[in-house]
UniProtKB/TrEMBL annotation:
This is Uroporphyrinogen-III C-methyltransferase. It comes from the Bacteria. The keyword rRNA-binding does not apply. Belongs to the precorrin methyltransferase family. It comes from Mammaliicoccus lentus (Staphylococcus lentus). Keywords: Methyltransferase, Porphyrin biosynthesis, S-adenosyl-L-methionine, Transferase. GO terms for molecular function: uroporphyrin-III C-methyltransferase activity. SUPFAM superfamilies: Tetrapyrrole methylase. NCBIfam families: cobA_cysG_Cterm (TIGR01469), PRK06136.1 (NF004790). Its EC number is 2.1.1.107.
Length: 256
């Protein structure tokens, strides 16, 4: 019987992976890695380690989730030590919970190695703290992709006047609808918004605006991007730091 490590690779900057995550990569026979994992992290693997790409883009999945789950089981039953390397944190919109359920149902040993999620790291690298004593005492991590069975209006209604900061994953394509629903249910149209493309990497681009004009400004960037909505976005003007550091620091590009 093998073993699986569900490892969070962090948001882009390879220095942000945990020491335990690197140890898992080094000792694995197989690494199954996602699209937004920085390719520099694969250099920690041994030369004979098998690398399997499991990347998913909005319109193209190299492997379906069911196929990934089945492969984890198959490799483990062959006696392989597998690192499932996922962007960000495996349990925050990473479907790591589903993979853990599958492994548990087959009595396969596994460990979860948390990672820094983009919802915290991307804003931080853009000079935006997701909480601040003067601006926000609550934050919600939200996905822009929801099941067909969920009422979209109701989904966003309770968020419109709920948490002071919203960090929205996978929401760029639906930004026009999200913006309209939030304003419809009472969010101030002048609420500051930031879009952060490829946060923490040397490809990072940040665009700011307000709910009422962010859709037009969003044309300046591409996926993947983190959406941050809330008064904390105002702080970017004061504490933006990464762009200056990035000029003197080479960070390997994200894998696409």
């Amino acid at each position: 019987m093998g073993k699986v490590y569900l490892v969070g690779a962090g948001p882009g900057d390879p220095d942000l992976i945990t020491i335990k995550g690197i140890k898992a990569i080094k000792q694995s026979n197989v690494i199954m890695y996602d699209r937004l994992v920085n390719k520099a992290l694969l250099e920690y693997a041994s030369e004979d380690t098998k690398l399997i790409y499991c990347g998913k883009s909005p319109d193209n999945h190299s492997l379906k989730q069911e196929e990934i789950n089945a492969l984890l089981v198959t490799l483990s039953l062959e006696g392989q030590t597998v690192t499932r390397l996922k962007g960000g944190d495996p349990f925050i919109f990473g479907r790591g919970g589903e993979e853990a359920e599958t492994l548990k149902s087959h009595d396969i040993p596994f460990e979860v190695v948390p990672g820094i999620t983009a919802g915290v790291a991307a804003p931080a690298y853009a000079g935006i703290p997701v909480t601040h004593r003067d601006y926000s005492s609550s934050v919600a991590f939200v996905t822009g992709v929801i099941k067909d069975s969920v009422d979209e209006d109701e989904y966003w209604k309770h968020l419109a006047l709920g948490p002071e900061t919203l960090c929205i994953y996978m929401g760029v394509k639906k930004l026009p609808e999200i913006k309209n629903i939030l304003i419809k249910h009472g969010r101030n149209p002048n609420t500051p918004v930031a879009l952060i493309h490829c946060g923490t990497s040397n490809q990072q681009i940040t665009v700011t605006g307000t709910l009422k004009d962010i859709v037009d400004r969003a044309r300046e960037i591409q996926n993947p991007a983190m959406i941050v909505i809330g008064e904390v976005v105002k702080l970017r003007e004061k504490i933006n730091w990464f762009e200056e550091v990035a000029q003197d620091k080479h960070i390997p590009e994200l894998m696409h």
